[in-house]
Design brief:
SH3 type barrels; about 45% strand; three-stranded mixed beta sheet; five-stranded antiparallel beta sheet; alpha+beta; about 20% helix; 2 domains; 2 helices
């Protein structure tokens, strides 16, 4: 997965990379070197700074496949419309079935419509 942000201020290119078994510093350096050469030689693209990184331990979860990939991990979920009088939940991801995220919170299994999820992030425990 690749996600690109371009900032006009200071001509910053920020590239987030990811792969199923995770990203390390060597992956970032390899991609940074390749992209730098590509932009300089092939595209004649003007920029001041290139940042290549992973989405981080508290990565955002956006697609159904993100929720499936991190089954068993703790996540923070913010809903668009309240459920049981609440919009914010933290629990362990259990999967997605029929367009509904299943998450275990305090021993209870709750289901959220994916369309009702405003923001979701992993919540790593240290």
């Amino acid at each position: 997965m690749v996600d690109l942000e371009i900032s006009n201020r200071g001509k910053l290119l920020r590239l987030f990379i990811d792969k199923p078994d995770g990203i390390n510093i060597d992956d970032c350096a390899l991609v940074s070197n390749h992209i730098s050469r590509l932009l300089a030689v092939e595209m004649d693209f003007d920029y001041d700074r290139l940042e290549v990184s992973s989405p981080g331990l508290d990565r955002p979860l956006k697609k159904e496949s993100d929720f499936q990939r991190f089954i068993g991990e703790t996540a923070m979920i913010k809903l668009r419309m309240p459920l049981q009088g609440r919009k914010k939940f933290e629990g362990v991801l259990q999967g997605v079935e029929d367009g509904k995220l299943q998450i275990e919170i305090d021993g209870n299994l709750l289901r959220f419509d994916l369309e009702n999820i405003d923001k979701a992030r992993l919540a790593p425990k240290f």
